[in-house]
Amino acid sequence: MQINKLIAGKKLTPTEIEVLNYIVENIDTVLELGVRGVAKKNFTSTSTVMRLAHKMGFRGFVELQYKLSTMIVNPSEANIVSEKQTQSIFQHNSRVVFEEAANILDSCSDKVIFIYAAGFSSVIATYIYKKMLVLGKRCLLATPSDSVGVLENNLDAMDVFITISKSGETQAVVDKLNMIKEEPIKVISFTSEITNTIARQADCAIKIQDKYKLDEYNQHANDFFPQVLEAFEYMIACYEKIQTNSK
C-alpha cells in the first residue's frame, strides 16, 4: 500500500510516518500489540502513536487500525472478488487458461514483455503496458505505426508477447506472430470468442465475446474492450496469488 496520497497535507513528522508504515505492514497484528506495543516496536512514545491517529483524522488508535485495514487489499481476497465480478469471461475460458497466463508472467523475470496492438486495441495495450511497469516488469509497447525494428531488435531479450485483437485477424498482429513463431517466446492473446488466426497461434488464448463482429470501426456500444480489461485484471489476480504463495 502506497501511503503518499494518504498522508498528503497531514504534516506528519518522520517518526510518525515510520509508525504509520509499521502499522500498515503489520495491520493484522498491531491491534493485539496496542498503542504501547506499537510505540515500543518503533522506539517512540504512546503520545506519538495517538498524535498520529489524530493527525490522520481519527479519534484513536483502534479507529486508525480499522480504517487502514479496510484500505489494504489481501491478494487472496482480491482473487475471490475478481471471480465474482468477472463471471462473463468464463463463458469462453477456463480458469486454467488464466492460471497458465499468470505462470508465464511469473516466469518472466529478467526478459522483456512485448505488448502489441492496433486501433482501439492499442488503448487497452497501453493500460496493460503501464500495469506491467508498476508490477516491475520490463516492457515494450508497439503499434503498426512503429518500425518493425522495435520487434526485430529485441527478439533475443523477449520472453512474452501480449496482443489484443477484436477480430483475431488483424494482419499487423499476424505478421508479428509469424516473425516470432520460431523463437522461444510465449504468446498471450485477447481476441473474440470465434476461431481465429491469432488465438490459434497463442500459447494462452483468452477469448472475449464480441457482440458486433462486423462492426469493424467499433461504432456501436460494445463491451468487448471492457471485458478484455476484466479478463486481464483476473489474470493479474492469478499472478498475485502465485506471488503470495511463493513468499
TrEMBL record:
One of its GO terms (biological process) is carbohydrate derivative metabolic process. It comes from the Bacteria. Gene3D superfamilies: Glucose-6-phosphate isomerase like protein, domain 1, Winged helix-like DNA-binding domain superfamily/Winged helix DNA-binding domain. Keywords: DNA-binding, Transcription, Transcription regulation. InterPro entries: Homeodomain-like_sf, HTH_RpiR, RpiR-like, RpiR-like_SIS, SIS_dom, SIS_dom_sf, WH-like_DNA-bd_sf. Coiled coil: none annotated. CDD domains: SIS_RpiR. GO terms for molecular function: carbohydrate derivative binding; DNA binding; DNA-binding transcription factor activity. Pfam families: HTH_6 (PF01418), SIS (PF01380). PANTHER family: GLUCOKINASE, RPIR-FAMILY TRANSCRIPTIONAL REGULATOR. This is RpiR family transcriptional regulator.
